[in-house]
Amino acid sequence: MPEENFFPLPATCRKCGRSFQYLMARDVYFIPSLREAELQYALCPECSHLQRDEEARRAVELRIQEQEQALAADYSRRYRESNLAEYALDYDPNHPHANPELDRWISENRYRSLWIAGRTGLCKSRLLQKYAREMLKTRSVQYWASFDLLAMLSSRSKEIEPLMRRLYSVDLLIIDDLGKEIMTPAKSKYLFNLIDRRRIGFEIARRRQNDDDPEFRFLSRERRTGAQLWVSTNDNGSGLLAGFSPQDGPAVLRRLSEMCKLYEKF
What we know:
The protein has helices at 26-29, 32-40, 45-82, 100-108, 124-135, 146-155, 160-169, 185-208, 237-243, 249-259; strands at residues 6-12, 19-25, 114-118, 141-145, 172-178, 228-233, 261-265. α6 crosses α8. It is built from ten helices and seven strands. The strands form two sheets. It has a five-stranded parallel sheet with strand order 4-5-6-3-7, with helices on both faces. Helices cover 50% and strands 16% of the residues. It is an alpha/beta fold.
């Protein structure tokens, strides 16, 4: 409103008790009951600003609560689809064979794509499942042993398109124990397509967000391609290559190295 539509009146802030000049709208000023009521609840500029900030904060908190409630209601379905119940492994940090170093590394990099290579006994599978269950609170996850994943895709070739679409779009795909299977041309193709499609999603997300941001969560809902991929293997690069054909192996490893942060311990 133009300034001529307001009247300055002496007022006392109801919150801090400070005296100040209150600008009252003309329509209110000429109705005594409204004028007195507005003066009674007047806020000085500083307190008015603080109240707006508080209202905005409460609105954000309310939206977060609503999102969390919606996620909680959907959690049981996401858990069923994750395959985590089938591969149920617990990680006990107090066990003498626990791996606090790898636990800490995954925790610090949980919003990135990861490639974990190392000998048997590093708790790779247990820790991946631990963090997969945690990630399920806010996103969709599928956990697969590599052998089971590629055998399932090979045996259900007639349904391959919807199966692959589901694996492409899940927020976090985990492929555990890569290299345990005997690779056929079909399995190599499925694996390369999964990794390559998720690399595309990774690049899209990285262009939209700052890759140095610790909260880099790959949560863009505009995409149809998931971004995060966690892979574990007991083999180093040359060991993995030996299981693939000369045409497929280098391409798979190149894609993994392009998008994944590597933890390696042999």
